[in-house]
Fold each of these.
Amino acid sequence: MRLAILDDYQNAALRMADWSSAQQIEVVPFTDHAHDPRQLVARLRDFDAVMRIRERTEFPRAVLEALPRLKLMLATGMRISRSVDLPATRELGITVCSTEVHHHTTVELTWGLILGLMRRIHAEAASFRAGGWQVGFGRGLSGKTLGVLGLGSMGVPVSQIGKLFGMNVTAWSPNLTPERTAPHGVTCVSKEELFANSDVLTIHIPLADSTVGIVSAADIARMKRDAYLVNTSRPALVDQKALTAALFERRIGGAGLDVYDVEPLPVDHPYRSLPNVLATPHIGFVTEENHRIFYEQSLENAKAWLAGAPIRVVNGDQASELIK
Amino acid sequence: MIRVAVLDDYQNVARRYVDWSSLGDDVTVDVFGEPLGSEEAAARLADYDVLCLMRERLPLPRSLIEKLPRLKLVVVTGGRVRVIDFDAAVAQGITVCHTSAGESEHATPELAWALILAAARHLPDEFQRMREGSWQQTIGTTLGGKTLGLIGLGKLGSRMAPIGRAFGMRVVAWSPNLTQEKAAPHGAEAVSKTSLFETSDAISIHIPGGAASKDLVGAAEIDAMKPGAILVNTSRGPIVNEAALLAALKEGRIRAGLDVYDIEPLPKDHPLRTAPNVVLSPHLGFVTEGAYRAFYQDTVDAIQAWRMGKPIRVLAAPGA
């Protein structure tokens, strides 16, 4: 069985699992990203199986139909099915397996970005490496207002840490009520209040048709001039044009961003050079522990499939616990 | 005429954050932006009645105090101060006052978490590489499910513990007099010093500086740490043996986040400035805009109160 591993940016695929324990699998990692579907099809034409990391590569029906040899997809940490056409995989006889993932790594990165923005760690660290000493002032968190857009499995832990830092924590989402925020010690506010009053606003709402562009130009225009917007969730939740314009014109304090419309982010994209952007390369889930889970469970998934008894299947008759 | 010197205003904000003219026409205020060495301090500060110190940036030992014949009042920002010889000050008729801590007490735990998270996820490196056009060169470490080791569970350390638990970490703590009874209310487990170094994935130091804690973290402690574990110091530089730390960083045995150094500002050619596996910040623990505004306002209030003959927040005074 020929297995292609896509988007292995860190060149880690071969060391992350003991592939030698499955002699019948020939593993071929690709460290660069195929942006163009035709390039992707050309790359995968001679493979029986493909492993993909999270949602780095999308598999629409057209791509799947162009890969007649493909029989197994090893998905990893799959949470929503928007990026793979699951009905098409069923019709085409492609088994899709997935793995677990620790989501709290995104909560950790969110706080890394919030603290980095508020205390200007990146600017101070860069100046320090270049021989400097204390070039500016950070802002303390205590007493400031944290706005959490979406108080779900990510938003709740993010809000609790904000409270422990002494922040006044508010939340909004389309169906959020004071009854649901109260047990977390979080104030339920209107969308207008959330944007107008937050010193830090962080987005933790799932992407769905109803939430595309939920952060609009009008919302961004309401933000305080020194407020920070943090997005470790999905790029399409935010009107990216409006955000870029606000950052260019310094209408908000800045942004902490981990997710982008096009990934890897183009080399000439303004988010790479704007002074008020703290940008990380979509590393919300990228930790040693998650990669171990992805690779070790994918190897198990591949072996089980080869043995005719596939496990962790997410496109079968029984809905897997792995996919919500 | 009363002459006031405001020292170590690195960011040049002392005049912006408070209205010094409120002290009256008979008070002149000079602000020093660059740090003064002790000899330079003796020469340049001899003609001042009042010194306003930023935390512990300029020590006032007896030898320096004796060279400042005109000095009557010292106002030091923040609470606890270990670098002033109070006996010498009092003997020379000098009053020493301090300011409130303001948000600075929150600010240091915030910075400690910023450094832990930055070290765990290689944030300054990944951010810099984004600037340079690359994409995902590192793989970070998860904190959830790991062990946070706190050296010191006092005012600052006890703020760290619940946040560690909220990140899903087990929290252990050690200090010379820590007991299980004192640790438990903070959600931390008291352990031996050896066990703390051997079992923690991230260690953060929150005990006071001074002779008792010098080299508390030496080669033996660093050697006992797990490979790749993170050591964060936002307390005082000398608590960690610099040579041992530097060696471990260069060999890639551990990672670190440092905010404090043996010599501050750290010399430009110091090997730590170019060391790998470390996130460096320039003693920012208490440095926030809010803390400074409160520091300078309290400083002006303290000078005012002293002039009225009713000094406030007094640490030491003649005849007291």
Amino acid sequence: MSILVDESTRLLVQGITGREGQFHTQQMLHYGTTVVAGATPGRGGGELAGVPIFDTVKDAVAATHPNASIVFVPANVGGADPIYEATDHGIPLVVCISEGIPVLDMVRCFHYLRLNGTRLIGPNCPGLISPGKAKVGIMAGHIHRPGSIGIVSRSGTLTYEIVNELTNRGYGQSTAIGIGGDPIIGTSFVDVLALFKDDLQTEAIVLIGEIGGTDEQQAASYIEREVRKPVVAFIAGRTAPPGRRMGHAGAIISGGTGTAAEKMAALRAAGVHVAETPAEVGDLIESLGVSRATSPPASS
Amino acid sequence: MNLHEYQGKEILRSYQIPVPRGEVATTPGEARAIAERYGATVVVKAQVLTGGRGKAGGVKLARTPAEAEAAAERILGMDIKGHLVRKVLVTEAAEITQELYLGAVIDRAGRAVTMMTSPAGGIDIEEVAAKTPERIYRVAVNPFLGLLDYQTRELGFELGLDGRQVREFTRIAQGLYRAFAESDASLVEINPLAIGRDGGLVALDAKVVLDDNGLFRHVQLDARRDLEAENPAERQARELGLSYVKLDGTIGCLVNGAGLAMATMDVVKLSGGEPANFLDIGGGARADRVAAALRIILADQNVRAVLVNIFGGITRCDEVARGIVTALQEMPTGVPFVVRLVGVNEAEGREILSQANLITATTMREAAEKVVDAARRQATLAGARRGAA
């Protein structure tokens, strides 16, 4: 199995003609993702690497029937508009890579999408990959391999670091998903845990959190109540000073809450194995006796 | 982006929220002149972007213009938690009977704007939340409907206000919510919202934090950024599009990605060192950006060693390597470098660095241990040099 994306994913790329959109469309095609269409206003009728481009999502949907979309439109150009465009035309899964959407726009967007039943991953996220099946994101495909560990993270490169650690030790991933570093995101840890707990391919879950907010604490209480699979966690930002934003818009300790220490304590209390360093995530997974990957690494 | 009290109060005023008159002074003479013009008792308040001004002696009552001048004399130039006071707000003193709290915040868990109020005003709301959480009343604002009048009435009556005061409170709360929404704030706080002798409500302080992601559509607010209050290195980094936060340690960190940058600092600490900074060069950084980032790190006199930790993806290891070499050619330094490059174009990156005589590492832990060790040796060297001199 795996979650959210696989061989049946038919992807639309919004903002396909921008620098990032072009580059990552080619990378995703190279990985084997089925990219059915691109959308950029004013560029309809063209194509990129064999992918037809439409002026609007409406036209792209009518012609190519995508079931997922990835958004590269810069936030200061489109804000949340591309997300609304995708959901209004019935696309059930929207992955927003763009960084910098104002938080009040995301408040409205979150509630609008909930009314429409659309699932949003991000914004400000690296996307997700089900190794060997589909890559809907900007991560390097070649460090992943198919396997039994589900990964969910608020970070980008830190996730690659931990994926690499696991792959090097012979552990593959069912799906690795970056949910984004903003204060308001479409899909939370709890939402992803609910999918991993029922996914047959996933034997163990790695949760990578950071300072700011209480999403990890909510994950801890959900795990305690609902998740019978082993969970390993790493929380970044133990040395972060309070009141300062650490790169991600959402990575800030405010009013004394959102510290790494309280998140680690909540997760430990819920029976989660909490690693001190990224490398220790690998040690803990080994100690749990999770199945190693049987298939070879996917081509880049 | 944080605003000063006087800037926050200007915003509140523009939404018809009652604020006592006040003006900014940068010299004791100006403070005296303002007090003379008002002909009333004034409060002289340090304008710094940090809390706890009162406890630090940065807020003083002055009954006469001479007292206002003396108060400004003492407060200007004061250091409050590392913030130098360059301006004071001279504002008319109000006779008050009670202090309330009113604020709007982003509730991350509820994905909504929440209005919060408390009869325990005048102290940090975090303190109230910790000690007497039952004295905080909240309503969540529907993002499509905005703040509804009945919600503000509920809050007003919970505060124990009378009918007339509740009407005034509703007007203030609606103004505050509009100020929040229309300026893309992440926090607007009136603490205290005071009840005067006449029973009327007045905002005696204002704390406004703006969402950095919203600033692109609020050019006039962005222009009000207090550049002097910003750490110069952090300001330079922001202008270059780098995320940099200065810390007190000795180990400079240059990393791609915010999560990995935080994790790198944590591993440095676990290995016995103290990070000198958080620095995320962002995705896809080219050589010139890396070089600029290194210049900022090396300008910090506390830095004894530098750790470069790159997981190449969009960011290519060879670009980072070229940036390091460029920076070292431009500003030769005795500070040792430990470099760990993994991922896209890692071999090319290592090749470029091989001529540069740097310490290399393959894992994060190894890199952190090597950089802590290098920093210790530098400190010993510096100590020996001082001893010899």
